[in-house]
Amino acid sequence: MKTLVLCVDRDDDLGMKAKIKSPVIGRKANLKAAVALGLADPEDSDVNVLLMGLKKYQEYKDMGREVELATICGDKNVGIKSDANLMSQFLEVVSRFTPDTVVLVSDGAEDEYVVPMISARYPVEHISRVVVKQKENIESTIYILMSALKEPKVKNRLITPLAVSLLLLGVLTLFNMVYLAYGAILTFLGIYLIIWVFNLRDTLSRMALEIRVTLRSRRYVFITATVLSMIPLLVVLYIGWDVVRQETSIVLFSSLTLTMLLLTVGFFVSAFLTLSSYLIGQRGTLPTGEFSTYSLLGVLLAATTLLMRGTYKERMATGGKVEAKE
Questions:
Q1: What are 298-316's pLDDT values in tens digits?
Q2: How would you classify the pairing of strands 2-9 and 124-129?
Q3: Is the CB of residue 106 less than 8 Å from the CB of residue 11?
Q4: With 116 labelled, which of 123, 170, 173, 192 sits at a CA distance of 20 to 30 A?
């Protein structure tokens, strides 16, 4: 049986600190890499990952298996790019040594994000997570925490949201808006936790990448049309909120008004997207008929809605005056 002992460094400490290009294949190359990283940063946990990989390599070799040892690295910006690098390097490794099983060695759950993409191709026989032993006293604990706070990963995930929260609290307190400050901080932390818990960072990174690609391709018209299509939606939401706030006594009328306003937004958005599809080259001819139809329906619905609302307010005002005279 052929077994691949695979060490994973998702944030590429090996490349950043020891200047070693990955993938690192073979026992001698990995031993050299472990020494280089240890000399560059003796406190880096990835040193222990490489040493554990060397140990597992020998253990499986003693079992009589055909074994290979390899280390793959991602990128300092953990996310889409780092996982793409890991996948590319993994495929390069297995192209040289086709294993029957894979033994994964890592220093934490973050590196184990690669398990699904590996297990989809080869059985993962064992996962070895390296836990560095430390002396259990207060001084060592404080030192470990201070060392951890210097790491870019910890700064991004812990210090950044804390700093933003303190900044919001300080600025809004200066303007005597303490209650608004607490609300803003809780909202920010809630959004941050949702992104973290549901692992939405990759999705947001992908969206940012698509926006950058769009900007580089000079499709400004499409972006402008998309932004303009949001303006009627915001206006409609404000008017709808105002309608519900002022006219809660007439539920039927409020519901009808909101429905018509949402339909209006739908027609305006359709008109903008239809025009933008021609302007960015997705359509060869100008869709005059569709654009005119959507725009006309949007204008008519908007005018009808405003007329109904104006008539209703006038009747309410007239009714109020009559009651006052009586």
A1: 778 777 777 776 666 666 6
A2: unpaired
A3: no
A4: 192
C-alpha dihedral (17, 21, 22, 28), degrees to nearest 10: -90
Beta bridge partners of 126: 103
Q: What is the pLDDT of residue 244?
A: 54
| Whole-number pLDDT of residue 326 | 45
User: 81, 61, 69: which is closest to 11 by C-alpha?
Assistant: 81
In a domain, 138, yes or no: no
Q: What is the pTM of this model?
A: 0.48
* 28-71 confidence digits (pLDDT tens): 999 999 999 999 998 888 899 999 999 999 999 999 999 999 99
Read off the amino acid at residue 259: T
CA of 152: how far to CAs of 16, 156, 159, 223, in Å? 12, 6, 10, 33
C-alpha distances (whole Å) from 299 to each of 105, 232, 260, 261, 307 are 63, 11, 11, 11, 12
List of the chain residues with pLDDT < 70: 109-112, 132-155, 179, 197-259, 275-287, 309-326
- Other C-beta atoms lying within 10 Å of the C-beta of residue 70: 28
C-alpha span between 258 and 243 (Å, rounded):
8
Q: Show the domain range for 16.
A: 2-129
Comparing CA positions, the residue from 20, 79, 86 lying closest to residue 50 is 20
- Asked whether residue 205 falls in the same domain as residue 109, the answer is no
Lookup: tokens for 87: 């996948």
Residue 323 lies in a domain: no
**The pLDDT of residue 94:** 93
Residue 145 lies in a domain: no
From 97, 17, 8, select the one nearest 56 (Cα to Cα): 8
**What percent of the chain is helix, strand and coil (3-state, nearest 5)?**
70, 10, 20
Long-range CB contacts for residues 251-254, cutoff 8 Å, separation at least 24: 253/312
Give the rounded distance of the alpha carbon of 90 from its chain centre: 24
Q: Treating both helix axes as pointing N-terminal to C-terminal, what angle do 80-96 and 201-216 enclose, rounded to 10 degrees? A: 100
The total domain count for the chain is 3
